[in-house]
Amino acid sequence: MLFSQDIGIDLGTGNTLVCAKNKGIIIREPSVVAIDVKSQPRRVMAVGNEAKMMIGRTPGSITAVKPLKDSVIADYDITADMLRIFMKKATAGTLFTRARVLICIPSSITEVERKAVHDAAKAAGARYVSLIEAPMAAAIGAGLSVTEAKGSMIVDIGSGTAEVAVISLGDIVASRTVKVAGDAFDNAIVQHIKKTYNLLIGEKTAEEIKLSVGSASPYSGEGAVSVKGRNLSDGLPGTAEISSQDVRNALSEPVNQILDAIQQTLEKTPPELSSDIITSGITLTGGSAALRGLDKLIERKTGMTVHIADNPTDCVITGIAVCLQKDNLNLFR
User: According to the model, what pLDDT value does residue 321 have?
Assistant: First the structure.
């Protein structure tokens, strides 16, 4: 269509990724917006990387906020502003003035939440808006045969939610979503260190600990890391030695919630499709799927083979890009 470009958006709690037809991923930035709270109406100061750098460093008149919570819109106006800026970046330097947008949504959101995403994209300037559920996009991006008459199981673990789905013949047969993923992992580490060592750390430090020594099950070469924070007894700076076992203890509850979601989804899966999954295994996608030992733990609990997709962080946006390229879902009909 003249003066229209097809773009795809993975609107995540932690990061927003944007791809364009025939161009691949063109934007990868945090889902953060810095706003001037004293201006009326509120004025957007920055989005993405620039806004994230302002967190904790802004004066009282400027606040950096995350407009999405658990992968759904928490602040409609700010989300629309963020989308408007990202879409403007995506179409910059082209003759296209308005985009047709394919945007990712969680499989479990309500009709009200679905409409909020659609309307926010329209308010941001989209010409047409089509929605795709995250597990379907992730499965396509991971290279699973979603259109065939056989069961494929995907576990997509992002920042805000973990989504488990069984897919066959181009549709989701059984699914379960839990609001437990990367952000919950980080928060669990913060709370564990606070309770065990009386030391307060930030979520950024917790993420660094998770990446450094975190795991869901024991692994070869385990270690420990020295962590700095604020001692809650006297308010002075303090340190603690955090081991891999400490992190496993912290993560046991959120990880078990994901395991329960997998089990509940398998219980709802028709026997014929269960047989397919036993043969093909479970595929993990999403940034938090790379947590050490998570695949092995799921294998032990389910008795099924577990595969981590290639480049799991980008599976959703890759699946969206495939859909845009092939238009195999009749997206804008």
Answer: 94
Block residue for tokens 């973990």 = 162
92 has a pLDDT exceeding 80 = no
Asked if pLDDT for residue 39 goes beyond 90, the answer is no
DSSP classification of residue 29: E
Within 10 Å of residue 95's Cβ, how many Cβ atoms?
A: 8
pLDDT at 311 > cutoff 70: yes
Structural domains in the chain? 4-31+66-137+315-326 (3.30.420.40), 145-180+252-312 (3.30.420.40), 182-250 (3.90.640.10)
The dihedral region occupied by 116, where left means phi > 0, alpha psi between -120 and 50, and beta the remainder, is alpha
Phi, psi of 227 (to 5 degrees): -120, 135
CA atoms in the 13 A half-sphere facing the CB of 15 = 15
Alpha helices by DSSP H, the chain: 49-52, 76-91, 111-123, 134-141, 182-197, 203-213, 244-267, 271-280, 294-302, 315-326
- pLDDT digits 0-9 by tens, 131-167: 999 999 999 999 999 999 999 999 999 998 999 999 9
* Predicted TM-score (pTM) of this structure: 0.89
Eight-class DSSP state of 284: E
Write the DSSP assignment of 143-184 as a string of letters: T--TTSSS-EEEEEE-SS-EEEEEEETTEEEEEEEES-SHHH
Residue 241's φ and ψ, nearest 5 degrees, are: -95, 115
What span, in angstroms and rounded, lies between the C-alpha atoms of 246 and 215? 10
Could you report the per-residue pLDDT of 264-306, keeping only the tens digit for each? 999 999 999 999 999 999 999 999 999 999 999 999 999 999 9
Query: How far is Cα 249 from Cα 37, in angstroms, rounded to an integer?
Result: 40
d(CA 198, CA 217): 25
Name the residue with tokens 């396509």. 140
The CA distance from 265 to 152, in Å, is 12
Calculate the alpha carbon distances from 188 to 231, 248, 285, 301, 304 in Å. 18, 10, 21, 22, 27
